[in-house]
Amino acid sequence: MWFLRDSCVVVVFGVEKAFIAVLLTELWCKCMPKPVSEFKSVSLSKPLYNLILKFIEEHPEYRSIADFVSESVRVRMQELGQGASEHAGQ
Fold first, then answer.
1. What residues pair up with 2 in beta bridges, in sequence order?
2. Rg of the chain over CA atoms, in angstroms?
3. Where are the domains of the chain?
């Protein structure tokens, strides 16, 4: 039997060892370094999200909402003279 807890997979052989396995897993998860992501998230209102979704369905050059938003922000930052291209992963 196995289960997932806090992104850690635990293999348990028998119910009596489950408690020990959970304790060891929690200890292991706390000691392991957390992965560092190059990405962050933002929230969009539902109407704006739906508007972007409809737009990208009609424009296949955008692979996803994230792709569209990244490009839009990069272009807007350039318009404002902020030179975001070096920060946009390009």
1. 11
2. 22
3. 2-31, 46-86
